[in-house]
């Protein structure tokens, strides 16, 4: 019994729960506590549940499922915590432990295996997905599906999300993305660009604009072959072993190039890349290589700022507001660079919203699997957005971008209000289409 309890403690990262002094500083920054008002849906409440499980006071781990699964994983509690509790590591371990013990139905298990093992890690599969989405949008099938109302009957509110899906690039444009691009003018740095999986399939235009902005700023840019999904969706879904394997594949791939930085343009992906050393901390050889990887990992806003910004052709006279990516802010600790880049655009008035660092409710696929909880958080966020009277909402993460687009539709603010990725906004100001 004692041996099995010790094994469970290790599995749950129990020792990290001892740093929590239950002070409550995390409560006012936790979106789910603020909207649900329950201790079990607060960081200290969730930590206490994991602690009780590690001490044998909770023997049925399914008790943890609802509190753990309803956590956004925004990590704002870590920023607020005075004792440095590693909440992300505790949450990740709890999710993995629950996933190992959960019996999924055959269809769900099959879907998870296909997505996590065959689709997200495969560049070929994501390319097929992107090209298929382009055909769906351009062939008339999308309009026909919307007209007959089939999409409204899809599970997980997929029809709602389908309506805000971005227009993807054509197969021809997708295949034209170069493997290398030289700096415009004097070279300042060499950057390896992380394309991602969802970003590459659905947001490749943002990837292309990112590469062009890096080149304009003075970077030689390399698209590393054999790179794969960052593993964030896997880790957030409890598939921790798959996440570790993807981390190793990326480390091997990026080690092949001598670069100053490994650059990403998605807050969630960047946070995962940034924490590869924590993910592989139990494997000595990989841990050291992951540390070297982490040291080079940068959000694109950091690199553009290091380069001195980008030349701006024009600035539209308008009010904008910035929706922070939780993982960019709370994990990568990138605060000032996106704001600095926005403020450098002439005629743009940046209006900070109230509770600017509060999560928007997207959180990977949280808004899909926990739709109602996500929408409650989004509605609160949009109330703060409306008070700024901004006509553009700028984000730094694809999930946040889609969530803001959904918020605009829910508040009937379209077309007078739009949502753009920071890269799209900078490219627009630089005269790049």
UniProtKB/TrEMBL annotation:
CC cofactor: [4Fe-4S] cluster
Swiss-Prot/TrEMBL catalytic activity: glycolate + A = glyoxylate + AH2; (R)-lactate + A = pyruvate + AH2
Record carries keyword Plastid: no
Keyword 4Fe-4S: yes
Highest taxon of the lineage: Bacteria
A family per Pfam: Fer4_8
Listed EC numbers: 1.1.99.14
Stretches assigned to the 4Fe-4S ferredoxin-type domain: 8-39, 61-85
Enzyme superclass (EC): oxidoreductase
Keywords: 4Fe-4S, Electron transport, Iron, Iron-sulfur, Metal-binding, Repeat, Transport
Cofactor binding, note field: Binds 2 [4Fe-4S] clusters.
Function description: Component of a complex that catalyzes the oxidation of glycolate to glyoxylate.
Protein name according to UniProt: Glycolate oxidase iron-sulfur subunit
Organism: Bacillus lumedeiriae
Source taxonomy: Bacteria, Bacillati, Bacillota, Bacilli, Bacillales
């Amino acid at each position: 019994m004692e041996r099995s309890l010790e094994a469970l403690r290790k599995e749950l990262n129990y020792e990290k729960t001892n740093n929590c002094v239950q002070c409550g500083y995390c409560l006012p920054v936790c979106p789910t506590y603020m909207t649900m008002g329950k201790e079990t849906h607060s960081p200290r409440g969730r930590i206490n549940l994991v602690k009780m499980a590690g001490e044998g006071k909770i023997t049925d781990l399914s008790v943890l499922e609802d509190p753990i699964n309803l956590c956004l994983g925004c990590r704002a509690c870590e920023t607020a915590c005075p004792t440095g509790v590693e909440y992300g590591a505790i949450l990740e371990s709890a999710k993995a432990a629950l996933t190992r013990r959960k019996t999924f139905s055959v269809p769900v298990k099959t879907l998870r295996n296909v997505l996590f093992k065959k689709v997200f890690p495969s560049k070929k599969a994501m390319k097929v997905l992107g090209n298929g989405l382009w055909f769906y949008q351009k062939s008339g099938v999308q309009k026909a599906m919307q007209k007959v109302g089939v999409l409204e009957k899809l599970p997980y509110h997929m029809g709602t999300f389908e309506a805000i899906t971005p227009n993807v690039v054509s197969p021809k444009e997708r295949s034209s993305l170069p493997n290398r691009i030289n700096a415009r003018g004097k070279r300042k740095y060499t950057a390896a660009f992380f394309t991602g999986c969802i970003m590459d399939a659905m947001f490749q235009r943002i990837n292309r604009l990112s590469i062009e902005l890096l080149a304009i700023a003075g970077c030689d840019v390399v698209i590393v072959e054999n790179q794969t999904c960052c593993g964030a969706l896997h880790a957030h879904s409890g598939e921790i072993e798959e996440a570790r394997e993807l981390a190793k594949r990326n480390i091997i791939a990026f080690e092949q190039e001598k670069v100053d930085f490994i650059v990403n343009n998605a807050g969630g992906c960047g946070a995962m890349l940034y924490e590869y050393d924590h993910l592989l901390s139990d494997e000595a050889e990989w841990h050291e290589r992951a540390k070297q990887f982490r040291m080079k990992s940068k959000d694109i806003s950091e690199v553009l700022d290091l380069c001195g910004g980008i030349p701006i052709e024009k600035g539209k006279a308008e009010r904008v507001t910035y929706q922070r990516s939780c993982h960019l802010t709370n994990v990568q600790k990138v605060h000032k660079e996106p704001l600095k880049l926005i403020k450098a655009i002439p005629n743009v008035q940046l209006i900070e919203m109230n509770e600017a660092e509060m999560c928007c409710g997207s959180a990977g696929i949280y808004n899909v699997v926990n739709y109602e909880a996500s929408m409650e958080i989004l509605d609160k966020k949009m109330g703060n957005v409306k008070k700024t009277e901004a006509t553009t909402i700028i984000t730094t993460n694809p999930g946040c971008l889609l969530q803001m687009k959904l918020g605009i539709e829910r508040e009937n603010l379209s077309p007078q209000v739009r949502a753009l990725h920071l890269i799209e906004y900078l490219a627009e100001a630089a005269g790049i289409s």
